[in-house]
Amino acid sequence: MNDHDPVASFAALLTDRGRFLLDEVREVEPAQELAVATRLRREHPAELVSAAIAQARWRQRAVGKFGGADAGRMFFTANGVEQATRATVAAYRAERFTALGVRSVADLCCGIGGDAIALARAGVRVLAVDRDPLTCAVARANADVLGLGDLIEVHEADVTEVDTSSYDAVFVDPARRGGRGRVFDPEAYSPPLSWAVEAALKAPRAALKIAPGIPHEAVPADAEAEWVSDSGDVKEAVLWFGTEPGLVRATLLPGPRSLRGRGLPDPQVRPPGRYLYEPDGAVIRAHLVAEVAEEVGGGLLDETIAYVTADALTATPYATAYEITDQLPFNVKKLKALLREREVGVLTVKKRGSAVEPEELRRKVKPQGPNAATVFLTRVQGAPTMLLGHPAA
């Protein structure tokens, strides 16, 4: 085993001895790692033991993204486990591709193969490309261990030099992390967004994965922009080409449920009603709060805050509804007295447009009692306000 060659070191994990060690350390907890490693190094190469323990650690962290069955068999790198697409999101994207008639995809910047796996499981033939030798070795091993090697061809190359003309679609997931952490400028992606857009425009269909915080003005006019959340957490934004240019949508998983933008004007600002609606993060990122407000017959509490208020309860998958019981100016002492009166011991703190930290507020009000409540720290027509309530039935 060559300690200076990461590909050779990884390949050693695929040998009989490597797989034995992976099984040995599968359930090892962090606190046990040192003792287990010391024991195993008496009979096995130290570097191989360390590599197996690292894989066990990454597999445990990957369960949330890939599920226990797949994560327990797959292989990862330190960056790969962090940057790989969540399986539910990748599966949704694969479904969109197949619905468009796509049967082959050039997956550029494939990483450890999360998207390639979802595409192959949808019956799509995939060319998975990455320039890093170790990443390619891991992606190839994942395709093999999941029984998808016949559909996934892993190619080590600079993606800017790959001919994708024979494929129905291109998918690009540029690296958005540099030596100093996360990269926010799309032109600092690797490869830059401008190159990815150029590659997309050459293909019949294409999807570019980008950071959800991308400014709307950076979205090309000939792209569809989609923001995706999974169980309430915003995961990514995607630029689609060859679909509906100019469309903006928010897609919520599981589901999927997609809210399409209609170019509505900003909602009217109005006084708080009986109900407050908290739009899903993907809806907010996609600038589709107006569509939610129209759906529930509501308006905004403040022109700069993404909280919708209405007098009636209207079911919508795109926002969580709360019934508001009390409204008071921002005043910690008054809130503490009200919570004591209501015997609130479980307090959920939500905020938009407030600098107060939830833990700081909880520490000051010291909630006690058998009841639960939610407090919103926000602004109502510019005035710092507290709204007390609970999830609507």
From TrEMBL:
Pfam families linked to this entry: Methyltransf_15, Thump_like
UniProtKB keywords: Methyltransferase, Transferase
Swiss-Prot/TrEMBL GO biological process terms: 7-methylguanosine cap hypermethylation
Cited InterPro entries: RNA_cap_Gua-N2-MeTrfase, SAM-dependent_MTases_sf, Thump-like
Recorded coiled-coil stretches: none
GO molecular function, one term: methyltransferase activity
Origin superkingdom: Bacteria
Sequence ranges assigned to domain THUMP-like in this UniProt record: 319-391
PANTHER family: S-ADENOSYLMETHIONINE-DEPENDENT METHYLTRANSFERASE RELATED, TRIMETHYLGUANOSINE SYNTHASE
Name by which UniProt lists this protein: Methyltransferase domain-containing protein
Organism: Streptomyces scabichelini
